[in-house]
Amino acid sequence: MEKENPSIEPGTPILGKDYSIIIDTKGPYFVYGHPRLQQEFIVPNADGEAWEYHPGETYNTEAEPVALCRCGHSRTKPYCDGAHTQADWDPRLTADRTPLLDSAETYDSQYLELSDNPDYCVHARFCMAKGTVWEQINNSDQKESYDLCVRETFHCPSGRLKIKNKKEDRFLEPSLKPSLSLIEDPQEECSGPLWVKGGIPIEDCECNAYEIRNRVTLCRCGASTNKPYCDGTHATIHFKDGLKPLKKHKE
Ligand code: FES
After folding, report:
1. What domains are there in the chain, each with its CATH number?
2. pLDDT of residue 250
3. Is the Cβ atom of 69 under 6 angstroms away from ligand 1?
4. Residue 224's Cα: distance from chain center in Å?
5. Which of 76, 122, 130, 236 could form a disulfide with 81 if both were Cys (CB 3.0 to 4.6 A apart)?
6. Is ligand 1 within 6 A of the CB of residue 231?
7. Looking at the predicted structure, is the pLDDT value of residue 195 above 70?
8. Rounded Cα–Cα distance for residues 134 and 131 (Å)
9. What are the tens digits of pLDDT across the range 98-132?
10. pLDDT digit string (tens) for 141-155?
């Protein structure tokens, strides 16, 4: 079957054919190209607001492909152990394939324009720190607020939030190497999605491509109603992957 040409979100690096993720219809994510796979913990600032990521354990991706659990039931997470065949879950890929920005709301200000598509929210909460990004953007003429808006949108793992420099008419995106992260959220006592970074192409088993984006979050708890994307349900069900907790840093 001939492959559809995927749309590419503005600001996404073009990778060629080195990496890809193919989603099994009723099973795992098959990852090609050996991207780095690492835990990333959402860590709060002194005010208890989600503020930065701390790296955790790295996992082997030497297999080609490596099969990663997406049903949430594997006993060998982050890898698939075949549990999806017996588990009670709905594997259907129901997400709308229209480009994320097509159905985003925009918030305008003097120097920045914020695009927001809440369907992609994964409850990472970086946008809530130091006054919300929606409030800060009204002060984008002040450097502190401008920088905060850029920082908070760059930390949004799903790309729900995107920011445009109006003067240059250009979307700003963090520089992300093609890699995968397992989001961990100790503050909310849950594990989050598989964070796909750097424009890795994703398609289903019938070669239908999803929009290629710099920041994508795929469900790995099995409970999202917007698969393959995470819709934040992991926080409601307190999904836990049982992987290593964040190491305590010495004072
Ligand atoms: S990992 Fe977020 S909804 Fe499944």
Report:
1. 20-91+177-237 (no CATH), 104-172 (3.30.70)
2. 52
3. no
4. 13
5. 76
6. yes
7. yes
8. 8
9. 999 999 999 999 999 999 999 999 999 999 999 99
10. 999 999 999 999 999
Question: Which of 79, 78, 83 minimizes the C-alpha distance to 39?
Answer: 78
The DSSP-derived string for the chain is: -PPPPPPB-TTPPP-TTS-EEEE-SSS-EEEES--EEEEEEEEE-TTS-EEEEEEEEEE---SSSEEE--SS--TTTTB--SGGGTS----------S-GGGG-EEEE-SSEEEEE-GGG-----GGGTTS-HHHHGGGTTSHHHHHHHHHHHHH-TT-SEEEEETTTTEEE-----SEEEEEEEGGGTEEEEEEEES---EEETT-PBPPB-SEEEE--SS--SSTTB--SHHHHHT-----PPPPPPP-
Looking at the CA of residue 191, tell me the nearest atom of ligand 1. Answer: 1
